[in-house]
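Why ASCH domain-containing protein? Reviewers of the renewal asked for a concrete example.
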Amino acid sequence: MQPAALGLELKERWCKKLLQGEKKLELRRYAIPEEFLDQPVYLLSTPDGHEGQSTLPPETMPAAHPGVCIAGTVTFSGQVVYSSYEQWLGDVTLHCVEPGTPYSWQPGITKEMFGWRIASVQAAAAPQPVPAMRRVLSSWFKVLEVQGAE
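Here is what the prediction returned.
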C-alpha cells in the first residue's frame, strides 16, 4: 500500500463498499478540495453507528488511536455536482446511498451534493494503525509525519 499524506474518515460499511468496487462515487455535502485530487488518500475506517457524526478527535489524532484503522487507500479524480434530487437518485447505484437514509438527499432541504469520482482503490493486506494526524477539513486528516519520510 502506498504511503499517503492525507486520510479520509468513513464508516466501516462505506469503506467495504468502496474497497470491493461497489461504490464508484463517495457522496458528500461539500466539494472535494482540488488539492486532494490525484493522490493516494488513506481510508480511515471507523465503526458504524453515530450516523453523520465523527467518532475521531476534533483536532489532533495520536498514532494508533483506538477505534480507527487504515483499511486501504483511495485516489479521487474529480466530482459530480448534484443540483437536483432526480439527478442524485439517478446515480444511486454509483454512490450506494439509498433514499430516506441519513446520508441521502433530503427533498426540500438539500440544495447540492457532491459525488467524488473514485479513480482507484487499494485494500491494505490487513488493517493498519493510523499515524499521528491532524484534522484539516470535516472528515479529512493530514498525516503529521509521512511514513517513509526521513
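Residues 6-143 form a domain with the Archaeosine Trna-guanine Transglycosylase; Chain: A, domain 4 fold (CATH 2.30.130.30). This is the kind of structural detail the renewal will allow us to pursue systematically.
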